[in-house]
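PT: before anyone asks, these are the final sequences, not the draft ones from last week. 1110 residues across everything. Please model them as a single complex and drop the result in this thread when it's through.
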Amino acid sequence: MTGRPIPGPRPSTTLGPVLDVRDVTLRFGGLTSLDGVSLRQDRGSVLAVIGPNGAGKTSLFNCLTGAYRPQRGSARFWPADDGVELVGRSPHRVARLGVARTFQNIRLFPEMSAVENVQVGVEVRARPGALRGLLPTRAVRREERETLDRCHELLDFVGLGHRAERPAAALAYGEQRRLEIARALGTSPSLLLLDEPAAGATAAERTDLVTLIHAIAGRGISVLLIEHDIRLVAAVARAIVVLNFGRVIAAGRPDEVRADPAVVEAYLGEPDERRDGP
Amino acid sequence: MGSAEQISQLTIDGLMVGALYAVIALGYTLVYGVLQLINFAHSEVFMLGAFGGLFASRALVPAGATPSGLTSAGLVLFGLVAGALAGAAAAYALERCAYRPLRRRGAPRLAYLISAIGASLFAFNLAGKEFGRQSIPVPDLFTNGTVVTVLGAEISTQSLVIACTALAMLLAVDHLVAGTRLGQSVRAVAQDAECAGLMGVDVQKVIVVTFVLGGLLAGAGGFLYAMTFNASYTMGFVPGIKAFTAAVLGGIGNVRGAVLGGLLLGLVESFGGYLFDASYKNVIAFTVLVLVLLVRPSGLLGTRLGRPA
Amino acid sequence: MKLRRPAPRRSPAVRSHSVRARKAQSRRAQLRELRSRMARPGAARPGGVPWPVVARSPAARRLGACLFLAVIAAVVTGPSGDADRPLAGIEGSFTPARAAGFAAGGLALWALSIGADRLTTRLRSAGHGAALGGGRLAALGGGAWVTPAGAAWASFRRGRWAAFRRGRWSAPAGNLALLAVAVAVPPLLSTAAQQALVSEIGIYALLALGLNVVVGYAGLLDLGYIAFFAIGAYTTAYVTSADAMPWHAPWQVNPFFALPVALVVAAVAGVVLGGPTLRLRGDYLAIVTLGFGEIVQLLANNADGVTGGPRGVFGLPPLSVDLPGVHYSWGLRPLPYYYLLVVLIVLVMVVFGRWERSRTGRAWTAIRQDEVAAEATGVATMRMKLLAFAVGASVSGFAGVVLATKQFFNPQTFGLQSSLLVLTIVIFGGMGSRLGVVLGALVLQGTAFLLRDTVPPADRYIYFGAVVILMMIFRPQGLLPPRGPRAPASPGPAAAPERPAVPTERAGAPGPAGPAASTEAAR
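LR: through. Structure below.
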């Protein structure tokens, strides 16, 4: 990780919440995936969502990012001083508002190079007009140069500077995860949603990931994190929300949550393999 | 709107054509169920089946003669079997040449579609080259006439033969998929091919069986269709799209949905053609297709082959 | 989730593996283990008759495939049958001489493919593993899923091509040479050949360039593409002639002004079709566009009062320039139209080349490769797909104008087969490759023209169909694939620095310098 500052979003000037989820309920036919979920995240903080498989964590992400539309509830998001509603917007609008995400099963653009992957994200913020790129005017070239600079800075930031020209599919698994994060950061988010970023990571990669998340948060980007590895969660998150069967069963500081009997019960009966990992 | 007779005649005609659409639609639905792919070349399987039945029955029926009685029944059956076998052979060759090599190489979805389109282009033009490019009638296998009148609608022998055969095939397939061991493997693969493979189902075999089954149905259906509308090398295209519409209308991947969709589409087309103009039947069918895809892409009965029918 | 499902009798070795290794890999390993376990009892099934080992060996299988290909080739190239003697064509295909010839051809093909495989194996064992690995990556990058032999060959070719194209001057020089050939050669050809260059090659190259945007860049399968061609042609008829059609626009314009009109009308038609349908999944989109193409043709055929019906449209004024001091009419000769087409094609290629390397092009690529991820990254996927549709449609409309001013057309011109022909050209040339699809049109249609006395025009489509299948199996990236990200592991002196000095290189980029402008950094 370099110490170079990432050209992040406008630094958070105000305190207060970045995200306020209220009573989100999502049903598929007769199956209730989320049942009145509420949570609140402070600006610049790292919040972790944990829970057994099928608890509704990824569904919650999908509701926040516009992939699903919940039947009830609201998710207010403050990119700046004024809040906006996320529910009901299409995914690309949500991304443009400043909520970026990664996927549990990595979804990159496999045949594009690493730097191009990031470019797609960065260019979302470029000046509108599909025809603009057609004439290589001075302004367009300067824009393209700035875009590329920023992409390389982001790749350096996640430690992939030396892999910039490789096709994404040719990167190692852990590198792909970091590239996904770089692409998400490219959209200049105020809030970054990470869906199991440490899944399948080695011990060393987990350590790196902790550093990376701290660095991201250090730039004023709030991070909402789904993760199974309790140790990793405890190392990065100030607060934890526990979901089970689509409901919030506990919330609070890591040590509080770990001691909560409801959480212990939720995890009993389904021992988590990853907890006895590295 | 016309008289009661007209209404019942339109209904009967619609159901008859609809039953044929349903038979072809089953091929789309079965293949879609196991592969999650639209088999673009299915219409050519249908066409080749029609030619198979046509040539087989022409070899047996002397020119100008019209058999009757049991001979007729035997000839119809023979033509159906020949059509079905030709369809099955075509479907097997299709799977072998245009699908399996791609599956082995792990090709993306688009590649299968394109390859099937290539197969379709190849097959129907080759048929045009080998069998001539004009439309050919099926020889008369029985004396066609009005058998029975229902509510003023005349039902011809031909309609009766088509309806009965189609019904028998639909029931047989429904039983096969819902009530046999083979059907169980087909449904297992449709739900989760990887998992079915782990449980000892030979996925490759199931795929082949599905194609062949669809080919049998389409081939027999092609022969039935050719009895009314003659056979030609381009005959597959329009019924193919309509059968696909039927499959989507009922819920693609769903066997009973395909039947329901076929009958419904037949009715819509029959009445629509009467209300507007017969030459706009195809436009009506396409419009139904577009509307269904836009409004309810999962169809009337939902899209899973695997769900308990 | 499935990882944790207790798998039946999992061995300790497998379990420890699953803990340590990465999720995906361990899962795959388990699958393999389980599958082999399931397979073993099946193989030892007492009642089952085991296949002879020889018949299942890869070489035997390949022999079967080669002989099958030979049989198909014999039938396809054989005499035609007809309805009265349906098997005559097939019988005629297997005269002793033909049968022997094709059997020998099949065997030769088999020997060749086996030999190529042996060579690959030997190369690999002889320590060329690194080079092959590079080839694999290159193949992966290019979106290929080819056999090892193919990968090796692709890496060889790609290496050569990449080296050739990377050169600062060689790419523009190569393009200029191609252009020079395209300009200099046609006057030397016969009139029939010039005619084919216009109506069979040039127009289809333009159509293929347009469809390439839809299929190659955005990954949308449009099977009704020819409808926009029809719309362009009929629009031209309406605005340039007062008597060719039963109905015409209140004013007539010079055919040159039909170009922008057709562009706009076709683009609008593209948006109108795409608006409701582009939300559909790939295969549904294909079939809906197929229906759309069919409806347009049906309307052109049936609506006599508006389109003139099946008798078609003729007598449109040819293209002409009437400026003070300059009077020139394209007349009826093919050559002037050919040069017009060359200008249009080069223009379209240059514009698309610039576009493909702009953020619009990247957004299209992103959509093609993972639409969900593109949308989540903030790409307005719906708008970009509509744009691709509209752009493709407008190029098709351009081609329609040239067609309409050049020659007679009727609804038959815009049949499904024409749509599929354009698709075949794009597949053959290389999806996403501008030079590829133009060369594809030249090679495919040129071959068809050269063989016009041997192969009846109606039979061409048999070969086109076969070409599509064979390309999808053996060379899905096409004749001349688009350049993917540079293959990283390619050994050689031209090893790039870890991070190229991108900004300077970009600043020095020559801009739209033709089809293969050498902005390696953009890739």
